Every structure is written in structure tokens, then in C-alpha cells.
Amino acid sequence: MKLIIAYIQPEKLNAVKQELYKREIFKISVTNALGCGQQKGYTEMYRGVDVEVNLLKKLRIEIAVNEDFTESTIEAILTGAGTDTIGDGKIFILSIEECIRIRNRDTGERAIG
Q1: CATH code for the domain of 87
Q2: Residue 86, exposed/middle/buried by CB under 10 A (0-12, 13-18, 19+)?
Q3: Residue 84: its pLDDT value, please?
Q4: 89 falls in which pLDDT band (50, 70, 90)?
Q5: Structural domain tally of the chain?
Q6: Cα(2)–Cα(37) distance, rounded to whole angstroms?
Q7: CA 92: distance to chain centroid?
Q8: Which of the chain's ends, N or C, has fewer CB atoms near its CB within 10 Å?
């Protein structure tokens, strides 16, 4: 079992979801996030004062999958979020020690679905 965490541009969410759906991956969690990397932010004028904006809007997607779906999930995110420019995002893959479905107490791969 793997937990795939991806940080992507907000406007790429629909494209990523469509790519995941094509691969029959339907269970995702999405959270708003702020961050910066090589983009380093930008400067804008607000009420006559220069303001440095160095935390940019991103989305954090978390997807727990069984081993069989790991590669297809990663490929879906790469296809949907990629523009070949700085700021496309990052993908992190973590091992999951255990998963328990609260409703019926299924564990392991059966709980992830």
C-alpha cells in the first residue's frame, strides 16, 4: 500500500481528476496549500506599497492506493499536471504500514479499496 502526495497548480485539478478517472482511480483527498520552490514568488503593488508574495497557491492531493495502482496513479498525475515549466509541482510516494476502514473494520488492501 502506498500514499501518494502531490502538490499541483490549482488550475490543473480537473485535468488530474480526469486522468485519474480514466485509470479507475476515484478516491482522492484535496487540500488547499501555500508554498514556494524555484518560482520564488513575485512582487505586486498593494495600495501604493510593494508587497512580496513568496507563498503561492497550490493544491495538495493525497491518494492511498494498493501496489497495483501506484504506477498508473503517478502517470495520471504527471499527465494531468505537467506543463514542462517551473512550478508544475512534486509527487511524494510513502509506504503505508496499515489501513483500517472505520465502517466495517476491514484492514489492509481491502480497506483501501
Answers
A1: 3.30.70.120
A2: exposed
A3: 92
A4: very high
A5: 1
A6: 25
A7: 9
A8: C
